């Protein structure tokens, strides 16, 4: 399988004009021609700033943290896929567990958002993952398959165009990483589910996210079905993010 790995930084609700400039400049300087795809996902209000900071280089692409499930109209606070496209956005995180938890996003919302992104030519990074309680109850496989199956159901014909991110909720921002074996086991389940939906499943990149850092990235990225990372905290520190990118290249 010769697909490039993808390392995506999810800045979440962090940053400022000054901090973004320092971070992006350090990344651009540190990354010449990485042998993997690299994306940064700033808060929506900073997309234009980061687009400008990334102008003139091709090593780092721009991503959004969400996309509206609607095309346009009376949806206060939303940003549509077409609007994101106006700012050079190539990827959009969809269905992050923080949005499922705090914004009440359901599997159906997530599936529609994926459809909107794909229709606009934006690659959705579809997040799935179980809570600690669900893992302890032995429901991990059931939960991630349910989350992905809603997306496959609505987007089956172009499902090979998505990126999937397995982010166990108990590993996000906690410093508790899934072991490479735990992560690989879930990635294999997701790969098998994609294989049942498309003969192009091997093209789909399945990222791991959840306390991935400069120290543990290499081992996680060595697993056969781990095709990259969705990085939170460590994406805010240029040296750490660059180390993770180097581990993926
Ligand atoms: P952390 O890397 O901070 O655990 O966050 C992971 C994440 O949620 C990325 O989307």
Question: Would you mind describing this structure in some detail?
Answer:
The mean pLDDT is about 95. The chain starts with 5 loop residues before the first strand and ends with a helix. With about 250 residues, the protein is α/β, with parallel strands linked by helices. Helix content is about 40%, strand content about 15%. It has a single domain, classed as TIM Barrel (Alpha-Beta Barrel). An eight-stranded parallel β-barrel has the order 1-2-3-4-5-6-7-8, surrounded by five helices. The protein has helices at about 15-30, 45-55, 80-85, 95-100, 105-120, 130-135, 140-155, 180-195, 215-220, 240-249; strands at about 5-10, 35-40, 60-65, 90-95, 125-130, 165, 205-210, 230. 1,3-dihydroxyacetonephosphate binds next to strand 8.
